Amino acid sequence: MKSVLIIGSGLGGLSTALRLSNLGFDVTILEKHQTPGGRLNIIEQDGFRFDMGPSFMSMTYELEELFNSIGEKLPIELEELEPLYQVFFEGQDKPRLIYKDLKKLAKEFEDIEPNLEENAKKYLDKAGQFFNDTIDKVVKTNFDSKLDYILKLTRVPLKHLPYLQKTMWSEVEKHFKSNEVRIIFSLVAFFLGSTPFQTPAIYSLLNYTEMRHNGYWKVKGGMYRLVEEIMKLLSKKNVKIFFNTEIVGISNNNGRLYEVIDQNGKIWKADIFISNADAAAFRGQILKRKNFSEKKLDSMHWTLAPFTVYLGVKGKINNLLHHNYFLGNNFKGYADTIFTSSISPQKPYYYVNVLSKSEPSCAPEGCENLFILCPVPDLRFKNNWDDKEELANNIIQDLSKRVNFDINKNLITKKILAPDDWAKTLNLYKGSGLGLAHDINQVGAFRPKNKDEYFSNLYYVGASTTPGTGLPMVIISSKLVTERIKKDYGII
Ligand SMILES: Cc1cc2nc3c(=O)[nH]c(=O)nc-3n(C[C@H](O)[C@H](O)[C@H](O)COP(=O)(O)OP(=O)(O)OC[C@H]3O[C@@H](n4cnc5c(N)ncnc54)[C@H](O)[C@@H]3O)c2cc1C
C-alpha cells in the first residue's frame, strides 16, 4: 500500500491521518511541536490544565461524520452551551446573557431592542437560506479550476448577490436598532479573525450556525480530549508520529515530490505528501515559489493575531460563565484600528473562557483557570512584543475591576503567548491566528488549493486551504483532500 507523509499534526493532519489509514494507506506524521493538536493544544502548568486555543465548536455533526466515516462512534461527550456566552459592555452594571433561544434573548434586551425576536428571526432566516444554498455547492466541494468554481457559484440563487456587496455591519445595522444588539450579532466576524466592518455580509451565516442551526458545544473534559482520543485511534491503526521534527526543505523533484528534509538534515520519503502547515506559507518558505514570496504573502489579507493569557487563580470568580466577552465603548474605532496598529491596545477588548466552571479537574480544588484571548495586529504591523507583560497586566487589571475579583493577589500561575510566540511555536505565518482571511478573493478557488500546482503527489489540508478556518471547516478540509487522493489514486 502507498505511503503517506503528513507534515503537521493539527486537527487537519490528524483527521486526514484517520481517514487515510482507514483506507489502508501507510501513514506517518511529522510534527514540529512536542505535542499533537496544533492550535487545538494543551498547556499544563502548576496543577492547572488549559486548552491552548479553541474553546468551543459548532457544526458538531462534521466531527461525528469524521468518526463514522472510519466505522467509529464519537469517542467524546459534547455539551451544548446555553446561554452561548455573556457580554460585559463597558459602563453597564451587569452583563447581557446571549441565548440561542430567541424568546429568552428578546427578554434579555427588551429594554433597548423591542422587536428583537421578530427581527432576529428575519435576519437568521435570510442567513440560513444562504447557508443551505452554499454549504454543499460551494463549501463542501473540491474545485478543479477557477472556471469550475464560478460554474458552481452560478448554481447559488441570485437573490444572495447583495450579500457579497455589503459588510456584515451594514446587514446587522439594517435589522437591529440598538448598538448593543448590533455588536452582539457582529461579534462572529472576530471568529473569522476579522472585523464586521471588513467582513462581507455572507458571514452572517455564522450567526445562523450559532443561533439556530447547531449552536455552540464544548467537549466534556476540555477540548484536548478530542486530540487524545484521535491519537488512541491512530495508534490502533499503526500511524507513526514523530515530534520535534520540522520540515525545512525538499530535495529532488521532477514533477513529483520524492523527499522532504527536517531541521536535522534527515530525509523522509513517501509516495504521497500532505502539508498541514499553512498552505500559502509552505509554498513560499519551503517550496520557494515566487507567487508566495514574503512580499506576496504580506500583501495578502491575514486574520488577526492572538494574544493569549493563561491564569490559574485561587478562589472562585462567581460572575464569570464558560464564555465571556469584555468590550469597551468605542466598537467601531477599536475595530478599525486593531488590525494595523503598531502599538498594543490601551483599552483592549477580550474574551475570557473559564474551563474550571464546568471541568473542576482542570484546576486544583477551590481554584479557577482562566484563558484570555485578545485579538491584536500580526507581526507585519507590530513586530516587537517586548511589552507583552504590560499588555497582559493591563487586561488583568481591567478584568479584576469588571468582575470585582483581585486576580493578581490570588494568582498562582501565569503564561502569556503573544503573536511572536504563536508564530514560533506552530509556524503560524506572522502570528496570524486563523491564517488567511476569508475575503471573497481568498475563498473557494481563490484560496491556496488543496492540491499542489506542480507536484502531482503533494496535497494540503487545514485552515489555510479550502474551505477555511475553524475546527469544523478543518474537518471538512480533511474530507476534501481525502476525496482528491481517492480520485487521483483510483480508490472508490
Ligand atoms: C487562540 C485561538 C482560538 C481559537 N478558537 C477556536 C474555537 O473556539 N473554535 C474553533 O472552531 N476554532 C478556533 N480556532 C481556530 C482553530 O484552532 C483552527 O482553525 C484549527 O485548529 C486549525 O487546524 P489546522 O490543522 O489547520 O492547523 P494547526 O492547528 O495550525 O496545525 C498545523 C500543525 O503543523 C505543524 N507544522 C507547521 N509547519 C510545520 C513544518 N514545517 N514541519 C512540521 N510541522 C509543522 C504545526 O506545529 C501545527 O502543529 C482558534 C484558533 C486560535 C489561534
Spatial strand arrangement across the major sheet: 7-6-15-16-17-14-18
Question: Per CATH, which architecture of the domain at 3-78 and 221-299 and 437-488?
Answer: 3-Layer(bba) Sandwich
Describe the sheet with the most strands: 7 strands, mixed
Compute the number of helices: 17
Tell me the CATH topology of the domain at 3-78 and 221-299 and 437-488.
FAD/NAD(P)-binding domain
Rounded average pLDDT: 94
What proportion of the residues is helical, as a percent range? 25-40%
Distance between the termini: 15 Å
Molecular shape: globular
Low-confidence segments, ≥5 residues, pLDDT <50?
none
SS-based structural class? alpha/beta
Radius of gyration: 22 Å
* Counted beta strands: 19
CATH C-level label of the domain at 3-78 and 221-299 and 437-488: Alpha Beta
Percent of residues in β-strands: 15-25%
Bound molecules: flavin-adenine dinucleotide
Name of the CATH superfamily of the domain at 3-78 and 221-299 and 437-488: FAD/NAD(P)-binding domain
